[in-house]
Amino acid sequence: MRITVKLYGVLRDLAGRETLELSCEYDECVLYRIFEKIVQTHPELKNYINVVDKEIYVRGVNIIINGRHIMFYDINEIVKEDLLIDILPPVSGGS
Amino acid sequence: MAEYKKILRVDLSNNTLEEEDIPPNVEEKYLGGKGLVAYYMYKEVKPKTDSYSPENKLFIFNGPLAFVYPTFTKISIGAKSPLTGTFCDSYAGGSFAVELKRAGYTGIIVEGRSDKMVCLKITRDEKRLIECENLRGKTTYEVGDYFTSYSVLTIGPAGENLVRFAGIFIDMRSRPLNRPGVAGRGGLGAVMGSKNLKAIIVRGWMGLEDLGLKIDLEKRSQLINRYMEILKKEVVPAIGLGSNLPVFKLSAEAKILPVKNFRLGVHDKWEELTEDGWRKIFVGRHTCPTCPVACGVKVREAGKETGKIEYETVAMTGSNVLVVDRPHVIELDEVLNALGLDTISAGNVAAFATELVERGILDYPLKWGDVEEYKRFYHDIAYRKGVGDIFAEGVAKAADHFNAHEYAVHIKGLEIPAYDPRGVVGMALAYATADRGGDHLRAWTVVTEISMRPSLEDLVKLVIHLQNRNAALWTLVACDNIVGGFADPEAGTKLYVEMLNTLGYDYDYERFIRLGERIYNLTRLINNLDGIYRDKDVLPPRFHEKREDTGWRIAPEDFKKMLDLYYRYRGWDERGAPPERLLKDLEILSS
Q: ipTM of the assembly?
C-alpha cells in the first residue's frame, strides 16, 4: 500500500518537506504500525506523535486519514487501501 | 446554607412585582445560574409553549459567588428559544449580575406581556415598571447611554421586531464604563421583545456585609489570594490579548475556520484577523466589576472602533462571508451590536443567504466580502424589511422557505458557531448534544481532543464530562473565558468548590460534577418534553459532505457510532431520553 503523509505548518518546517511517502505490506499495514514507521523515519515528529504498546498518542496535532478523522478508526485494523494522512500542526491556547 | 435567596417575580400582564424566597431544598439542589433557570423552566413553563406567548418566561439568575468572589460576573438568562422551541440559556458579562446581587436578588422571573413598552427599574428606593415608549426603536448603545448610572440589560430594534436571533445586551454604551456583555444565543432578546420589555436597569446598594451571608471571611481571604495567583500565572497569559482572539490562529492552522458557509476551512488572508493583527490596532481594555483579568478588547482602525470584538464575531461575520479586513469586521460588529443581533447566528445567516444567491436560489445583491451589502442585509433583518423578513426567522426556517436544507448549518434551529467539526470531531458530538442546539460552550473539546489518545470512547467521555462540569460551573456563574485559561481545569474547579463551601455549602468535587449531571439531565428532560429526541440530535448535511478544500467529512455511520456511545455512557435510552430511574437517582424526580 502507498501511504502519503501531508504535513502542515510547523511540522512541514520540522520535516523539511510537505509530504512524506511511505509504503507498507501485509501485516505492516496496521494503523499503529504505520505511525510507528512514520515516527521512526522522521524522529523530528516524535514530540507530536508517539506509539507506545500499540497505542498512538498525539500531542497537539490533528490527524485525518482519507478524509476520516483518526478517532473513527480502529488502529489495530489492517488497512486495505492507499492512505492520505493529513497531520495538522500543534496549536495552543483557546477557551 | 446561605440565607439571602430572593427572586423578584415580574408579571407584565398585571403590572405587578412580588418578592419570593427560593425554597431551601431547590436552592440546595440547583444552586444558582443555569441550575435555577433549568429548575424554574421545568416547573413553570409548559412543554411546547410558544416562545413568543405570554406564557413563556424569562429567567435571569446570578450565582452564589457573584460579588462575593472576584470574576463571578456573568448572568445566566434563559427562556424557551424562538429558534429551537426548547430550553435555552445564554450568558453575559458586565455589571448586571453583581448589581442584582447588591440589590439583594438571586434572580428575576419575567412573565406575561405588557401592552406598552416598559422598563423594569430596581434601586434601593423603588422597584417598579416604568413606561419606556420613548425608547422604542433605540439601539442598545442608545439605551445604555440613556440610563447612565445603572447596569443596563437591554434589547435593540431586532429584539423588538422579534428577530429570532436577537440577543440581550448588557452595559452597551458609546463610552463603556466597564466591559459590555452579550447573551447572544438563542433569540432571548426576541423573547424580551415579545413581552414589550425594553430594558431592566439596576443599581445595587448593598455591601457584602448587608447581604446576610454567613461567610468564613478568613478562608475567603486565603482563597482570593490563591485565586489571584492562578489568574496572574495561568489565566492572563492564556487569554493573551483577550476576547478569545488567540483562537483565530488555532482555527486557521487547524483548518477548522468557517469560510463561505463552512465550505472551506481557511482563507488566504487569515493572518490579518489573528490576535497579532488585532494587537496592532489595540487601544484599550475593559473589565467586568470585581475581575482583574480585563479581557474586553477595544480596537480602532481607519476611523472604525469597537469595544466588543471576539473570536466568534471575527470568524462568523468576517471569515465565513469573506470579510477579511479588520476595519470592515469592526464596522459589521458595531452594526450588529447596535441592532441587537447575535453575531454568531448573523454570520451564519448571511453566509447561508450568500450561498443561496450564488446558487441562483435567491435574487438579492449579496456577494462574498461585500461589506455594504451585508450592512444593508443586517438592517433589513433587524427591521424585517423585504427579504430580511425571511432571514429574520433564522437559518432553519429560512431553509424551509427556500427548500434548501442542504446548505443550512444549524442544529435544532440554532446556528452553528465557528469551529468546523470535520476537523475536530468532538465538536460534532458537542454540537449535536448541546442542550440549547448547535453550540460550542457546553463542551469545547478543540484543544483537549488533539492531545489525547485517539479513542472514540475517551472522546465521548470527554464531551460528557465537559457538559456536566460546565453545567455545574454555570450555577456559580463562572466565566468561561477564565475557566478556559486554567492550566489545570480540575484544580480550578476544586478551588471554586472551596469558595462555595465558605458560604456554608458542603460540596466536594464529585458532588459538584454530579450537580452538573443533574442539571444536564434536567435540560434534556425539558428538550424531550418539547419533542427533541434522537432524530434531532443530528448534524447538518454539510458536515456529512466532503469539504471542498480537504475532502474531510463525518460519515453518518461514524456519527451514529459516536452518538450511540454517548447515550450509553449517559445512561439514556435508544431515543436519547434519560429513563425514570436515572432521573430519580439524580434527584430530579422524587423517588
A: 0.92
